[in-house]
Amino acid sequence: MALDDTLRKKLIASVEHGFAEQIAYTQDLIRLQSVRGDEFIIQDRVFNELRNRGYAMERFDMDRGAIERHPGGSPFSDDHSRAPIVVGTHRPRDEAGRSLILQAHVDVVPPGPESLWTHPPFEPVIEGDWLYGRGGADMKAGHAANLYALDALRRIGLQPAATVYIQSVVEEESTGNGALMTHLRGYKADAVLIPEPEDEKLVRANVGVVWFQVEVRGLPVHVREMGTGANAIDAAYRIIGELRILEAEWNARKAGRPNFENEEHPINLNVGKIEGGDWESSVPAWCRIGCRVSIYPGVSAKEAAAEIEQRIAKFAREDSFLSNIPPLVTFHGFHTEGYELPPGSEAEKVLADAHLGATGKKLESFMTAGYLDTRVYALYDKIPALCYGPYSQNIHGFDERVSIASLKRITTAMTLFIVEWCGVELATPE
Amino acid sequence: MALDDTLRKKLIASVEHGFAEQIAYTQDLIRLQSVRGDEFIIQDRVFNELRNRGYAMERFDMDRGAIERHPGGSPFSDDHSRAPIVVGTHRPRDEAGRSLILQAHVDVVPPGPESLWTHPPFEPVIEGDWLYGRGGADMKAGHAANLYALDALRRIGLQPAATVYIQSVVEEESTGNGALMTHLRGYKADAVLIPEPEDEKLVRANVGVVWFQVEVRGLPVHVREMGTGANAIDAAYRIIGELRILEAEWNARKAGRPNFENEEHPINLNVGKIEGGDWESSVPAWCRIGCRVSIYPGVSAKEAAAEIEQRIAKFAREDSFLSNIPPLVTFHGFHTEGYELPPGSEAEKVLADAHLGATGKKLESFMTAGYLDTRVYALYDKIPALCYGPYSQNIHGFDERVSIASLKRITTAMTLFIVEWCGVELATPE
């Protein structure tokens, strides 16, 4: 069902009308530095923004026991965020349409050395079409778009004719436990839309992600006796070498997986952190590496973790140094399975129409090689889980930026999608 | 001139007599945790111990300008110790003999993870013949021996018939600037003895040491775009590989160096520290390695540093990632030249006699592949610089320990050496 052309034009104009305010709000969100564990203030801001618009509010903590018992839960560590999850609920007068979850995360990855940024990472500078800032693209732009897509309806006196949950979560960059917690809390709808920065495409398939740490310990000696000591940094690099072999094997397993076999390198192993040794003149006695690896949909994190553990244990047994004190492998973050969005759902069709209406282009879909919260809804709610959002550059990198023109198109498409998916009724007078 | 046998026996008995107190004092020194920068309290204790014995005291700071202008000075960094240097001076009534410097350092290397120690690193536990503890062997045992060798004379009513400077320095484990500062201050004598843990041997030759840091910076990206980003941890490892080639070349240059050509691997490059990356799911944007390499006597630190810089620069130019942002090489610690002790000096002969008198064995000499403060006296004072001390195990490692029996033999040998080198006179009444 194509949208009435008059209504479509009114909606486009309404998004346009609120867009300056939407950008200003997105900039506010960027200013609220919200690296892992520091999302308290931004969640308060989000809570107030939603409450001021009249949504029914709930705010709740992670249930560690429930998360760790669930197959999609990731292990907790000392770094795990304690910030709350915030959900605002729109309830229609008449539950006539299809319900919807609009989800976004507020946590951002660390900015890294500030000197490598053109502008300070948490200053939301605009240059040309780009809005810069850590977490701007990933995903405060999308976070604000959830709110402003609904605002666009209100501005012209309308509201969704179905329940809409607006969910603001944490831990998307490290465990995925925030999204899982909304599921465990009982939130459920007929579809979910998460506006991650996906270059105006729909995610068709998505890998699972496993984080693990390998700690090597050895026998340090004075460097004058280097031959008799064991260098833990060198040993850690030997383990990295073995993990690269495992990565190649996992990539070779792409054969027969339609969403992956045409990708050159669908499985990425990233050694993201390393730390070792205490003193230049002491042979290093310890070294820790923090790794992240992706897994195909259908492979459980448990299976992948077991294979990683066994491979490192086998390698260590055959290594003259590592066999003395076997390396310690711990799983301290993402422990999640990937998903695939089966083509042909009604939700996808509605989004494709909305995308065409907003951009004039056909909606493309693709495979992404990073974790996405959509997996919770796809795997455990078994509902159409749509991940679709604006153009961006350098997410997780320096000078992360989101395209402002793209953000407007996406917000428009989201508005059209909501209208078509949920239906509309006259807005409740405030 | 062999020592009078009656006096020799009295001296041996006197060392024995004071030995329990000497061990207790050594244990006190171990308890005073004195890693780099934290040597204030231990230097106060040393000051008081020397002053209480009636030595003329001086306490002074590093003269950064003078050190950095001197060819044997190492660069200062933020980690450089600000603790004072302490010197106690014995002045005889009659300056009849040869003057002597007895030197020792109080700084110790970091203990590393405490869980890898059998006993806590700063608890001076005795088990059998071993006294355990970080810095016990290297070199609080020798530090105490300097004092107790002189005490052994006093106990029988004697004192050296020449000036003796008892010097307590810092920065031996990181720059060698403490010893250099005593030289710059003007302290000078006819010989120096430093009782480092040298397994009851005399150091014949000693390498120079250069510390350097290599910092790699890259362009981090989300791990989903790993191919387009550059992994700084991998790049650091490529640099380590190139440095290993340089190390092999330097080892090959041992040919024609009598004190080195029979050593299998005289030049050691140690990658002692590594740190890189901020987040498991971000391709690491930076990585720093802290290295230590040894150089042959006669090679200046400046020449070595230039060769390291040029080699890394050349390697980086040919590396597709590193050529974008060349790695930064900085020299932040040891920048010191090695030395050789020419055989045949009178000081060596006196020490050999003393060693024979204390141990019944011929004094052996050897090359050590680690930095020694003796280089200051050998290179810049051009005096016989004797480095000779007790048996030890695992210095710079876990469960560092010094042999108590060996320490007694060494203290005795030092006492006999002082008597023979300086001559003796009746002790000044207190």
Automatic annotation (TrEMBL), chains A, B:
Annotated SUPFAM superfamilies: Bacterial exopeptidase dimerisation domain, Zn-dependent exopeptidases
Record-given protein name: Acetylornithine deacetylase
Domain Peptidase M20 dimerisation: from-to ranges: 205-319
Sorted UniProt keywords: Cobalt, Hydrolase, Metal-binding, Zinc
Family: Belongs to the peptidase M20A family.
Cofactors that this protein relies on: Zn(2+); Co(2+)
Membrane-spanning parts: none
Gene3D superfamilies: 3.30.70.360, Zn peptidases (3.40.630.10)
CDD domains: M20_ArgE_DapE-like (cd03895)
Source organism of this protein record: Tardiphaga robiniae
Chloroplast among keywords: no
Family annotation (InterPro entries): ArgE/DapE, Bact_exopeptidase_dim_dom, Peptidase_M20, Peptidase_M20_dimer, Peptidase_M20A, YodQ-like
A molecular function GO annotation: metal ion binding
Record carries keyword Hydrolase: yes
A Pfam family hit: M20_dimer
